[in-house]
Amino acid sequence: MDIVFTIAATIIDQLQKPTLAFLIGGMLLASLGSKLEVPEPVYKFVVMLLLLKVGLGAGISVRDSDLTALVVPAICAVVVGIAIVLLGSQTLARFRGVSRLDGLATGGLFGAVSASTLAAGMAILDDEQIFYEGFIGALYPFMDIAALVTAIVLAKVSLARRANSTIPSGDTAILAGQGSPKLQAPQVDGLESGLLKGIFVDTFRSPAISALLIGLAIGLFAEPDSVYKSFYEPLFRGLLSILMLIMGMEAWARLSELRKVAHAYILYGLMAPLVHGALGFGAGMIAHEVAGFSAGGVILLAVMAASSSDISGPPTMRAALPEANASAYVGTSTGLGTPVAILSIPLWIALAEMLIGF
Questions:
Q1: For residue 133, what is the DSSP state?
Q2: Contact 241, 311 (CB under 8 A)
Q3: Would you tell me the crossing angle of helices 207-221 and 195-205 to the nearest 10 degrees?
Q4: Of 15, 57, 157, 279, which has fewest CB within 10 angstroms of its CB?
Q5: CB-based burial of residue 131 (10 Å sphere; 0-12 exposed, 13-18 middle, 19+ buried)?
Q6: Angle at Cα 47 formed by Cα 338 and Cα 150, nearest 5°?
Q7: For residues 61 and 124, is the Cβ–Cβ distance under 8 A?
Q8: pLDDT tens per residue across span 115-147
Q9: CA distances from 49 to 67, 154, 158 (A)
Q10: How far apart are CA 319 and CA 146, in angstroms?
Q11: What's 309's DSSP letter?
């Protein structure tokens, strides 16, 4: 019974956190028929500031780290982030009744990293006096960006395939202004005609990824610390609360789409953090054997993999994939994934103690 009370207490605690509280507040306003609206230009400005802040913070963390020691764990973090999204694309995104777009967006958030869950893991290791590398905080952008970009690219490929499959070959030739059958195949089979390259270019040029990457580049190669600490950090939590309020209102409007397959998201939200954490732990063990990565580092890589993004992920998905259902990916990741990820931290500590020792 103790574990039941612990889970319940963790969920209640998460409901009181600003991220989920403002999301639920937006849903409540929408359910009561509120006419509250946030103008689209204001929304876009908020998202740009949020993602610039995330990118700048990540770039500053990487810049200040020991790059030689960072290489192997960073590669492991990238591989794990991509692997989690690919796993989601073959599980949740293929579940009957689940929109592939919603499944990939959810997988993207689970592949990305929760800074608050990582901070909780660090605090627990500090309390237990378990050593971990000082550059651990710099690992999260590698996993975060790899997962988000992979999810967005896969989602856009899926949308492009669906759009191509609905255009008859005859119509394609007419739209192209050519009657030759030779021109029809490349139009229908978009990937063979360079569609994948176009999707990659489009993804990296999209407002969300562009803001994230330019922030990362400036943090890496310039010295934006003063403006980061004086402007972006103080505004961040307030802007995030506005974004979650908007997403809550949108989520309520699309909640009916989720009800038919809610069991799939519940199962994924409960099981995915454990599976993903095991992937992260395995990657950490490889880094331990190859580069002497510490036991504490292995634990925190598992914690990052088990977590799901509550900061960079939602605005990135909302901006890059507006068609995806926010109630699916935010509700599953923050409402279920985060409590399970936090509760799983002792598991990774026990495994590291058994396999590596402290």
A1: -
A2: no
A3: 60
A4: 15
A5: exposed
A6: 60
A7: no
A8: 778 877 887 888 888 998 877 877 888 898 899
A9: 28, 26, 29
A10: 17
A11: -
Closest CA to 337 of 283, 265, 245: 265
Q: Output the six-digit token pair for 243.
A: 């974004």
Distance CA 11, CA 185 (A): 52
Distance CA 209, CA 214 (A): 8
Please give the Cα distance from 43 to 141 (Å, whole number). Answer: 24
d(CA 341, CA 311): 16
Contact status, residue 152 vs residue 209, Cβ threshold 8 Å: yes
pTM over 0.85: no
Instruction: For residue 182, give the DSSP letter.
Output: G
Question: For residues 144 and 310, what is the distance between their CA atoms, to the nearest angstrom?
Answer: 11
Q: Alpha-carbon distance 80 to 347, whole Å? A: 19
Q: Which amino acid is at 125?
A: L
Tokens of 332: 């599953």
Map tokens 């500031």 to a residue: 49
Cα separation, 320 vs 327, whole angstroms = 16
pLDDT digits (tens, 9 = 90+) for 319-352: 888 888 887 888 788 777 877 888 888 899 999 9
CA distances from 8 to 24, 262, 340 (A): 18, 19, 11
3-class secondary-structure state, position 55: helix
Q: 213: buried, middle or exposed (CB in 10 Å: 19+, 13-18, 0-12)? A: middle
SS3 282: helix
